[in-house]
Design goal:
By secondary structure, the chain is mainly beta. The protein is built from two helices and twelve strands. It has a single domain (28-164, 178-198), classed as Immunoglobulin-like. It has helices at 9-20, 77-86, and strands at residues 28-35, 40-41, 43-48, 53-59, 69-71, 105-108, 117-123, 129-134, 145-150, 160-161, 183-186, 195-198. The strands form three sheets. A six-stranded mixed β-sheet has the order 6-5-8-9-3-10, covered by helices on one side. The chain has a four-stranded mixed β-sheet with strand order 2-1-4-7, with no helix packed on it.
Length: 199
């Protein structure tokens, strides 16, 4: 028995549609981590296209908890959002140090413990510009921040991967040793930023 495929135009239409339909764009993958003991992200700036799908994996390889919030707003928005997170008081932990600012906070991780990671999947804004990101745990926003640049030419944005500085030969410059000289411990019943330091 010979099948007459011409009598079934719907099958041909479906095959042609599947063959020539545009494939969904692959998400841009970005990996970011903390710099252990430095309260900084290891990527200070990265570029994405307007409306691009982004998969950002954030690894907390520090000894403290951290989070990551991607924001939109004017200069100084990182500190403003962080201060609003700090003002949440005891409720900050339950809210992962993310204030109720839906129009400002584009994407965010939960608070990550040391060694944890989380992948954010989001669509970049359609408007070109600079979108800051920040850690909103108490005191972290002063140094843990960076910029996501939305541009039609992301290759013009230099992805800044922070490199370790070379050790100085100056005897008065502190250098890492083979064993830890400082131990940090959180102070029980103290404010979130309080730490106990022993040498």
């Amino acid at each position: 028995m010979i099948l007459n495929i011409c009598n079934k135009p719907s099958i041909w239409h479906l095959l042609l549609f599947l063959l020539f339909s545009p494939r969904p764009a692959q998400a841009l993958s970005i990996e970011m981590a903390t710099q252990p003991g430095k309260m900084k992200y290891d990527v200070e700036v990265f570029g994405v296209r307007p409306g691009e799908q982004v998969r950002l994996t954030f690894l907390n390889n520090d000894e403290m908890q951290h989070n990551l919030l991607i924001l939109q707003g004017k200069e100084g928005i990182t500190l403003k959002v962080a201060q609003m997170a700090w003002a949440l008081g005891p409720g900050a932990v339950e809210k992962e140090f993310v204030p109720d600012m839906d129009e400002t906070v584009l994407a965010h991780t939960r608070v990550l413990n040391p060694g944890e990671n989380q992948t954010l999947s989001f669509q970049a804004p359609e408007s070109e510009g600079k979108y800051p990101y920040v850690c909103t745990l108490p005191g972290h926003a002063f140094s843990m921040k960076g910029i996501m640049v939305v541009t039609s030419d992301p290759s013009s944005v230099t992805d800044v991967q922070v490199e370790e500085k070379k050790l100085s030969n100056d005897a008065f410059v502190l250098k890492p040793h083979h064993k830890s000289l400082v131990k940090r411990a959180f102070v029980q019943d103290g404010p979130p930023r309080a730490i106990s330091v022993g040498i």
